[in-house]
TrEMBL record, chain A:
Keywords: Cell membrane, Membrane, Transmembrane, Transmembrane helix. CDD domains: TM_PBP1_transp_AraH_like (cd06579). It is found in: Cell membrane. The chain crosses the membrane at residues 39-59, 90-112, 119-142, 162-180, 210-229, 250-278, 290-310. This is Rhamnose transport system permease protein.
UniProtKB/TrEMBL annotation, chain B:
This is Rhamnose transport system ATP-binding protein. It comes from Xaviernesmea oryzae. GO terms for cellular component: plasma membrane. Keywords: ATP-binding, Cell membrane, Membrane, Nucleotide-binding, Repeat, Sugar transport, Translocase, Transport. Residues 24-260, 259-514 form the ABC transporter domain. It comes from the Bacteria.
Amino acid sequence: MNRLLKNREILLLAIIAIMVIGFSTRAQGFASPGNLANIFNDTSILIILALGQMTVILTKSIDLSVAANLSFTGMAVAMANAAYPDLPLALLIVMAIGIGAFLGAINGFLVWALQIPPIVVTLGTLTIYRGMAFVLSGGGWVNAHQMTPSFLNIPRMSVLGLPILSWIAVLIVLGAWFVLTRLPFGRAAYASGGNPTAAVYAGVDIGWTRFLAFVTSGALAGLCGYLWVSRYAVAYVDIAIGFELDTVAACVIGGISIAGGIGTVAGAVLGSLFLGVIKNALPVIGISPFAQMAISGIVIVLAVVFNARAEKKAGRIILRDRAAQDRNTGEVSA
Amino acid sequence: MNGVTKIQDRSPHPTAMTKAAPILEMRGISQIFPGVKALDGVSIKLYPGQVTALIGENGAGKSTLVKILTGIYRPNEGEMFIDGRPIAFHSAQAAIDAGVTAIHQETVLFDELTVGENIFLGHAPRTRFGTIDWRQINDRSKALMRELESEIDPTVRLRDLSIAQRHLVAIARALSVEARIVIMDEPTAALSRKEIDDLFRIVEGLKRQGKAILFISHKFDEVYEIAENFVVFRDGRAVGQGKLKDTPQDEIVRLMVGRDVQDVFPKVKVEIGAPVLAVEGYSHPTEFRDISFELRRGEILGIYGLIGAGRSELCQSLFGITRPSSGRLTLEGRPIGIRSSSDAIRAGIVYVPEERGRHGLALPMPIFQNMSLPSLRKTSRSGFLKAANELALARKYAERLDLRAAALSVPVGTLSGGNQQKVVIGKWLATRPKVIILDEPTKGIDIGSKAAVHGFISELAAEGLSIIMVSSELPEILGMSDRVMVMREGLSAGIFERDRLSAEVLVRAATGNQ
């Protein structure tokens, strides 16, 4: 039991289960399979984005431009769909992924070739991509009646009891798991974040690895651009505004170390579901949206504290000397 | 009250030194880290107005002693006395309050702050209202600088100063607290001869003020020039101390090197084969120049030198971490170009770095993943990772190196230092290299593990691997090497065959003290 509790994915799963049970005592049917499937479907986009974010964070970087990327790509495919209703949906999806990957590649290139800190690069491109969405649309909206029925409906189609949107999330989860645990790129991502210097010494090209991580994150953001526009049946500049923080929060709650090198796909998924359950439950039990934000915030801070403590324990042996030095300089200059 | 006047107050009896009681005495000090006894029952005394030189190889315990004196470490055993009264430092501030100050090798100063701010950071004089008293900072900084025979303006930013001037600021900072015991940790490492002369004038001034100085240096000529007393450390023990003027340099070298070399390092006789690696005219813009040597099959080439002689930098460039500005590399008769570490690994040259935590291991990752990281090409099949192959590879080398771990899937960060070192070595052996570069392979591990590592290095050579071993420990270099290249200030100071090797020869070549 003790060992089970130490596994943070299982701990998180248990907490989510307890939350669901707790909420169902207040709201009839909260724990019904139908509602749980709804919550999962509702959280699908967050899960996909969080997996992209996780890939980037693993390499000791961060991608703050995912929501802006989503907004631009969503606008682009929505406008393409409105202007050329005959374009096949598959082409639009490929286009969304392609545009997203290209925007991600811009981030990756700036981080890799110009050695600019990822937080600065993506903070900049966040604004640029939103601005591009505005320029592209002229500030206008693309509404449901301008979109073709297949564009709107395919993600909602139910297959084996779940909407296609959910199935896409499931596929991406499996894909992310495969890439991160079964491909050399995944290993390189963990190594680049776990200890960049050691990774270089081991022959890992960390610049290239980061570039690929940003491309991955961008491609997933692009895919989510289509999914989002289709789900909410509207495209405008401000869609998903601030959503990049939700993706980071999902990762942090899921135990992905913001310092890189630590984290699992299961963690990112559970972190997203945790946020999804809270988001869906609080209105049901009558808590105001403002309290929701505060509660999410508290949970994130707690998760960070929890992570920091766990990491400190793991790294203690070798860092003792360094810590002593740091303490020294701290005290002298204090 | 003004700190400067206090310093001047304390310079009354420049003549009564030799007979004076020690300001500071340490008795039976031991410092134990998991797996290593860094200091073992060390006793030293520091006298007012005298310089005591602390001499020893890297890892002999000098830095640990400095950290105890400055209140960073609390010793496990032993007592300290200041003016005969027992004292214990519970924090760095306590050491400063007791009058101990240290000028470190790499001084912690702030480029963007002014000279005055740097000097008084943390203990700035205050006005009546509790705000910082800038006028006093400037006046006292000027006074301190004048005491150091320098006219540096206290309002200049540190980044505009030369290295030597920064050093003066560091000294001024150390003296701005009421210090009676001044520790100088390799203060001359970055200085030119003229700057060293200036520094020594300052040290003479401090002596006249009756301060006790602990002077840590590798360079014998400097030690004889400035110090009265010496203490030699070896393997955490004070193995000799006394007056320098009664002690010839050879005696100190002997104390430093200590044990009879051949007994501890039973070097396996290995048939030395054909040349494997030839380095010609290797140069780097700043770190080393015109290095040439040849390495044969089964040979152990030692590289000896002082810290900063460019040894690690040379090895890192052979491994593709940095690029040389000129020079040629030939591996098994074929010229090769190495532009990245993956080129080097593919060619069969690997590097086991000195700082295993920083360069060697990704601590959160499992043991087997760390071990397989440079070998993924071999363990993967058609681009997919094969965990079974990785585990098999890790198991093979874990057994061979006698790695102690609960499971190969636990994070490397949970292992002890010695076992982490085994993971690093195993990881590189698994790439089946032709040339292995070991940078300080036994630094920071205890004597028992050292012997195991040395035995293992001999075994590798016997299997036909060519080994470059960088080490600052003379016994290790003397005991293990077939040949030794000595580096000094980025240049090769000679390559010595095994039959011509002796501690004196190497130390003289490394210090340039022919």
